[in-house]
Write a structure and sequence with these properties.
Strand content: 5-15%
Largest sheet: 8 strands, mixed
Order of helices and strands: HHHEHEHEHEHEEEEEHHHEEEHHEEHEH
Protein name: DegT/DnrJ/EryC1/StrS aminotransferase
Keywords: Aminotransferase, Pyridoxal phosphate, Transferase
CATH topology of the largest domain: Aspartate Aminotransferase, domain 2
Distance between the termini: 58 Å
InterPro entries: DegT/StrS_aminotransferase (IPR000653), PyrdxlP-dep_Trfase (IPR015424), PyrdxlP-dep_Trfase_major (IPR015421), PyrdxlP-dep_Trfase_small (IPR015422)
Family: Belongs to the DegT/DnrJ/EryC1 family.
Bound molecules: pyridoxal-5'-phosphate
Structural class: alpha/beta
Pfam family, one: DegT_DnrJ_EryC1
Shape: globular
CATH architecture of the largest domain: 3-Layer(aba) Sandwich
Number of strands: 15
Length: 415
């Protein structure tokens, strides 16, 4: 009788233990890479739209959001559109990019930077990164221009990307482009809120574009913006984004346009988000600082630098892992993080390595050294959401430390 009772108790305790352990594992909450972070003010603007029945594209939130962004970055004019991709597409249309043209574009970026070149039937030429900012290499750009000049085929535009919040070497790039008299489209989708020599990121080219996709530093759930000091060009952007309707009393069209405008409801989300942009930049920078403090002295870990006289918004904390020094690859650390229910990402796969762009021209940083290839092999983006809890960030840090230490131990044992 007692024995049976005892065995039941033991079994019950065992099950309770297993159950507890199971619950504990399940309770390890998922840490996301860059989730939306609402301010609480979005609802106010959305409600206004609903109460006044401006549940349409265009309306007071759109007008206000455009003005607020233009003011914030110090540009003459901003046009709100349905995505960052749409904004790049409009910029190319404004520059009359068409079949037979080429456009120079950063290689180390999200494919959305280059897809609109293809939409226009033109051909991208990819430019490598330089090692300091990970962004467009001025010396590779110069070589591409020299070749273009010899072949009597200069590009119609240069798309410069500011990766993970860090500005490219804009002075050097702008000086080359102005020498060849080719306009710049600054893809600031990831760097909104950052600065370059005191100027807002995105305002250095002829056109700048921002993205308010759900994973960006501020979001409208989905949306984008094109900005410029060229008032006339921005009027044309509005015209093209609303099906290119001629000023006539009936529906008349002399151009092909797009349905690219942002909705008045989503612009309301954007207004509530823009109010806290400086706070979001400070929070993301603080998250970077914490990673840096805890991880920078580990062997083989190198953080993406911040160029002098620029302020990155640190949209994502990005680093490289040198396998020889760390004893572990970026890919292996990524697997370790994934096992811990932590969402990290490899650095963008360069566009010149994408199957869809196979055979297109590419200019590496040095004739026989591609920097973006190395950054892709060694790079890792860590969870950087402005609403990530301190303890969650410490969980990420612990996991990275453990995965490097365990490999160091293994190596020492083998030695
Ligand atoms: C997100 C992103 C885009 C595209 O923005 P969407 O709003 O998603 O269309 C373009 N370029 C870069 C570098 C991006 O990160």
């Amino acid at each position: 009788m007692n024995v049976i009772f005892l065995s039941i108790v033991v079994k019950w305790k065992k099950e309770k233990f297993v159950l507890k352990k199971g619950v504990k594992d399940m309770m390890k909450n998922r840490i996301f890479l860059s989730p939306p972070h609402l301010s609480g003010n979005e609802q106010k603007y959305i409600n206004e739209a609903f109460e006044t029945n401006w549940v349409a594209p265009l309306g007071p939130n759109i007008d206000a959001f455009e003005k607020e962004i233009a003011n914030y970055v110090g540009a003459n004019e901003a046009v709100a559109v349905s995505s960052g991709t749409a904004a790049i597409h409009l910029a190319l249309c404004l520059l009359d990019v068409k079949k037979g043209d080429t456009v120079f574009c950063s290689s180390l970026t999200f494919i959305a930077s280059a897809n609109p070149i293809i939409y226009q039937g033109a051909e991208p030429v990819f430019i490598d990164s330089e090692p300091e900012t990970w962004n467009m290499s001025p010396q590779a750009l110069e070589r591409a221009f020299q070749d273009g000049s010899h072949e009597n085929k200069l590009p119609k535009a240069v798309i410069v990307v500011n990766l993970y919040g860090q500005s490219a070497k804009m002075d050097e790039i702008m000086s080359i482009c102005s020498r060849y008299n080719v306009p710049i489209i600054e893809d600031a989708a990831e760097s909104f809120g950052g600065t370059y020599k005191g100027k807002a990121s995105g305002t250095l080219g002829l056109f700048g574009i921002y993205s308010f996709n759900g994973n960006k530093i501020i979001t409208t759930s989905g949306g984008g913006m094109i900005i410029s000091n060229d008032q006339e060009a921005m009027n044309k952007a509005r015209f093209l984004a609303t099906q290119a309707r001629d000023p006539a009393p009936y529906y008349q069209h002399s151009n092909i346009g797009f349905n690219y405008r942002m909705s008045n409801v989503l612009a309301g989300i954007g207004r509530g988000q823009l109010e806290v942009l400086p706070k979001r930049v400070a929070e993301r920078r603080r998250i970077f600082e914490q990673y840096y403090k805890e991880l920078a002295n580990l062997p083989g870990i190198y953080f993406m630098a911040e160029l002098q006289n620029t302020q990155s918004n640190r949209w994502l904390t990005a680093l490289t892992i040198n396998e020889k020094e760390a004893g572990v690859t970026a890919g292996e650390v990524l697997v370790a993080l994934t096992k811990e229910n932590i969402e990290a990402r490899p650095v963008w796969k360069p566009l010149h390595l994408q199957p869809i762009f196979d055979g297109l021209r590419y200019y590496p940083h040095e004739k026989n050294e591609s920097v973006s290839d190395r950054l892709f092999q060694q790079g890792l983006c860590l969870p950087s959401g402005s609403n990530m809890a301190f303890n969650d960030q410490m969980r990420v840090i612990k996991c990275i430390k453990e995965s490097i230490n365990s490999h160091m131990c293994k190596r020492e044992l083998q030695a």
